[in-house]
Specification:
Layout (H helix, E strand, L loop, with lengths): L2 H12 L4 H7 L3 H4 L1 E4 L2 E4 L7 H14 L1 H10 L26 H23 L3 E2 L2 E2 L2 E5 L6 H9 L8 E5 L4 H8 L7 E6 L6 H15 L9 E4 L3 H6 L7 E2 L17 H7 L1 H20 L6 H15 L4 E7 L6 H13 L17 E3 L11 H6 L6 E6 L8 H20 L3 H10 L4 H9 L9 E6 L4 H22 L10 H14 L10 H11 L1
Parallel strand pairs: 5-6, 5-7, 7-8, 8-9, 10-11, 10-12, 12-13
Antiparallel strand pairs: 1-2, 2-13, 3-4
């Protein structure tokens, strides 16, 4: 995109008005600066975006060709140019085959049907372990092969009626050891999720799980399944091809839980609820493709992100779900957004004229209020906040909990916006009997700057369908931001260098090779570790 447009966006941001002033001037601001998709509402009125600013952001998206590139993605064009691949994770949840993708869609349907058959066999006891019906399922993966299904399994806990689900990802032996501790290997199914079946962390954990199972199970391979395209390697591991589920190279890891990577989730909640999850994603896809840009939820979520990061210069973004079962959503979005858009060059290899993606972080409310919200409210840096909350919870007998939860969510976004002036703080201290210099000193500690932006995503209840909508919403947000930045959101070369160096360090740690050529710091640390 023309660097002059980014310069103009920054210039506009320099003169942005206060949020409270915008509300004072426009009684209908909340309605005008919010958008719906089904029963889901995205409210971005508590930001400094004006109508003219939004129009400029929309013109930037048009200049970047967002609509055309969106259509190219859905049509199967090879928009992942650095790897010469299509980007078709949306096909995994498409109810019907898009024109020209009938063959690919039929293959997706076949694999999903095989997954459902296997999931049902595990759930109804047709498939058993050496000790009988499967009671526990362990998903071993890392990155997109772990974060997505682990997040979704927690989010959809009220819908679990199958075996208990466990997730292992870290190569730290504590992860696999703590997970296996207390489980019965004779009634445990292990799913190894690695497209190439060579990912070192995943395969190290898989071999340890295999050894654990082999101590009690005569044929441990019979209680393993795999999500992989490397059937030769899965066969060598002892896994029957009937329990191997592959996916195409046009499905990136962090976009993959809609298909075989979601096998553990499907076993836990059942194929019907998994289908509802897919339907939610498909509903957001349809909205993204058909809604006008000014009413398009993924587009507007992306434009607000661009405004805060590249326009206003806010370097981080806090994701704050007021839904305890979305506790892993911030971690999931860290990978989705930071691995996708953490780039320094555009598609043509030229340096970006602006910073790329922000640092994404967060925790569920209300826990965060008693931790880092102090910095959000009174710190010297502005941190845009993205609140998520359900109108209703699942626990009808604990409705008073949910009322308190919602009250806290709404109060936080209000407090960030309105703040508290020095004069208001003075009055509070005076009411406590303080006077003069001491009153003013204490008052200064109770001033809230306010004018701190936030958005709120409101949904009826966290159902499988709603979760699918939320995840697809954020996927498309990443896409739109990537297009506007002119980068490839679908490669991740930044993870490769560390892997290469780790592979080179392993034989040094084992004493098989010399540390010659390593820097002084690394040599010192190696020496201390080896004793």
């Amino acid at each position: 995109m023309d660097s002059a447009l980014w310069d103009e966006l920054r210039r506009i941001a320099e003169t942005r008005p206060k949020i409270t002033e915008l509300f004072a001037k426009d009684e209908a601001r909340a309605e005008d600066f919010s958008v719906s998709c089904g029963e889901m509402l995205f409210d971005f009125s508590k930001t400094q975006v004006t109508r003219s600013t939004l129009d400029f952001l929309l013109s930037m998206s048009k200049n970047a060709g967002v609509a055309a590139k969106r259509d190219a993605m859905f049509s199967g064009a090879r928009i992942n140019e650095t790897e010469d691949r299509a980007v078709l994770h949306t096909l995994l949840r498409a109810p019907q085959a898009p024109e020209g993708l009938e063959v690919e869609h039929a293959e997706v349907a076949r694999i999903l049907a095989n997954m459902a058959a296997f999931a049902n066999n595990v759930r109804d006891g047709s498939y058993t372990g050496q000790g009988g019906a499967i009671t526990d399922v362990i998903n071993i993966g890392i990155g997109g092969s772990d974060l997505g299904p682990a997040m979704a399994a927690l989010a959809l806990a009220p819908y679990h009626d199958g075996p208990r689900l466990h997730f292992v990802s870290n190569v730290d032996g504590a992860d696999v050891a703590d997970t296996l501790d207390g489980l019965n290997p004779e009634t445990t199914l292990v799913i190894v999720a690695s497209k190439t079946f060579t990912t070192i962390e995943t395969m190290t954990n898989a071999r340890s799980a295999f050894e654990w199972m082999a101590a009690k199970v005569s044929d441990p391979g019979s209680q393993f399944a795999a999500v992989s395209t490397a059937e030769d390697k899965t066969a060598a591991f002892g896994i029957d091809p009937a329990r191997v589920f592959g996916f195409e190279d046009w499905v990136g890891g962090r976009y993959s839980m809609w298909g075989p990577i979601g096998l553990a989730l499907m076993i836990g909640i059942g194929p019907d609820d998994f289908d509802a999850f897919l339907a939610g994603g498909a509903a957001m896809d349809a909205h993204f493709q058909s809604a006008p840009m000014a009413e398009n939820m993924p587009v507007l979520l992306a434009l607000i992100g661009i405004w805060h990061n590249q326009g206003c210069g806010h370097a981080t973004r806090a994701v704050l779900p007021y839904d305890n079962r979305l506790a892993r959503l911030p971690a999931y979005l860290q990978q989705l957004e930071m691995e996708s858009n953490g780039k320094t060059v555009a598609m043509d290899g030229a340096a970006l004229p602006v910073h790329s993606g922000p640092v994404v972080w967060g925790e569920p409310g209300t826990n965060g209020q008693h931790a880092f919200y102090q910095l959000i409210h009174q710190g010297t840096r502005v941190i845009p906040c993205e609140f998520l909350v359900a109108a209703k919870g699942h626990e009808d007998n604990l409705s008073h909990h949910h009322e308190l939860l919602v009250a806290n969510c709404l109060a936080q976004s209000e407090a960030l916006m309105v703040g508290r002036s020095f004069e208001e703080a003075q009055a509070l201290m005076a009411a406590k009997g303080l006077e003069g210099a001491e009153r003013d000193r204490q008052a200064r500690h109770r001033v809230f700057p306010g004018d701190r932006p936030s958005t709120t995503l409101l949904y009826p209840k966290l159902t499988p369908e709603v979760l699918g909508m939320i995840i697809a919403l954020y996927e498309h947000r990443v896409f739109v931001e990537g297009v506007m930045l002119g980068i490839n959101s679908y490669d991740q070369w930044g993870v490769e260098l560390g892997k290469e160096l780790a592979n080179a360090l392993t034989p040094i740690l084992k004493g098989e090779e010399s540390d010659a050529g390593k820097d002084g710091s690394t040599r010192m640390l190696l020496s201390r570790i080896k004793g």
